[in-house]
Amino acid sequence: MDALVQAAITHWAPRFVANGVPFTDFQEVTAGIETWDQWCGAWSARAAIHEGIGRGELDDGHNLSAAQHLSAAAVCYHFGKYLCVHDREEMQVAHMKAVACRNLALPHLAPPGGRVEIPYEGGTLFGNLRKPSGAQCPPIVVMCMGLDSAKEEMDAYEVSFLERGLATLAFDGPGQGEGEYDFVIRHDYEKPVAAVLDWLSGCTDIDAKSVAIWGVSLGGYYAARAAAFEPRIKAAVTLSGPFNWGAIWESLPPITRKAFEVRAGCANEEEAHARAKDLALDGIAEKITCPIFIVGGKRDRVIPWQDAARLAAEASGPVVPLMIEDGGHVANNRGYLYRTQTADWLAEQLRN
Predict the structure, then answer these.
(1) Superfamily of domain 1-110
(2) Of 30, 89, 278, 280, which one is least surrounded by beta carbons within 10 A?
(3) CATH architecture of structural domain 112-352
């Protein structure tokens, strides 16, 4: 097994299972991969099994079952492409299959969802909008992706909010998911968030005056940055976000640095490192005045928990810090210590 495959397994194994990959699939697929070049193809082959079952269930009219199988297919395709920037063509094929499977699933989920298109700088950002069953004009959680996550991975997180009466809008921003083909990563993430909030203001079935922002991994930085500059945000949750991306550059896994280089539109790693320094909360964290719940894992091998602790120390508004002693990156190995807790907290904030 080469170093890149080992790094992917070491750093992200709990995330795969916590976010919808069947445990046996994870074991069997990763056991059969020896080189990074095999990664995307192996995951796509497993995803195709779930996709076939899901499409068959649709044909038979078993729509909820179909949605569940298709969502599993989407997340397996996603994890095939998530860091596969060395072969952009293979990556995009897997990615579009993930999007197609999730789009097929959305109207048949419980509660259902739909694909939305948000105007942004002459182009479009794509998102998945879901509303809790029976709710009239519910508050909403805007969900920011990380460097290698995408809206197709968000089902396990969405459910916690939906069950508590909150709508969710998971969207792919610049350099993320479907946004990575038309837009590069940007540090001033309040700009795409403003476009999302402007779009939400035109929705008659959502309470656009009761909006929270949530971000995972690098999305934790994005959510904090947006909360600092966007007054329409009532509360924020950040999960293992970096305080200064450039400052931890050398300690990041090589495949993470390469993914940032490509998705930031940089010519080489030196340029990417320079660009990474722009993604920093120095002098900005203090501008966060809305309530913020900050999660870090003290065994995080990707982003040090001290970054979360620093954000908690420097934010000016009410802060709930949760540093999980044995939590890895995003504490996916200890999801029961923060997933329901952050969902309950956001529901309380948005109903106050």
Answers:
(1) acylaminoacyl peptidase (1.20.1440.110)
(2) 89
(3) 3-Layer(aba) Sandwich (3.40)
Domain spans of the chain, in order of start: 1-110, 112-352
Alpha-helix residue ranges (DSSP H) falling in 117-250: 155-162, 190-200, 218-229
Q: What is the pLDDT of residue 175?
A: 98
pLDDT band at 4 (very low <50, low <70, confident <90, very high): confident
> Of 290, 255, 263, 116, whose CA–CA distance to 177 is shortest?
263
Tell me if 121 sits within 8 A of 184, measured CB to CB. Answer: no
* Residue 97 near residue 81 (C-beta atoms within 8 A): no
DSSP state of 146: -
For 45-76, write each residue's pLDDT tens digit.
999 999 999 999 999 999 999 999 999 999 99
pLDDT band, very low/low/confident/very high, at 276 (cuts 50, 70, 90)? very high
Residue 26 to residue 41: CA distance in whole angstroms: 14
Task: List the beta strands (DSSP E) in the chain.
Answer: 113-120, 123-130, 140-144, 167-171, 211-216, 233-239, 292-297, 319-324
Angle between helices 39-59 and 88-105 in degrees, nearest 10: 20
Distance set, CA 251 to CA 79, 94, 197, 269 (Å): 22, 29, 35, 14
The two three-digit tokens of residue 107, written as one number: 């109207």
**Given its phi and psi angles, is residue 193 left (phi above 0), alpha (psi -120 to 50 degrees) or beta?**
alpha
250 DSSP 8-state letter? G
* pLDDT value of position 127: 98
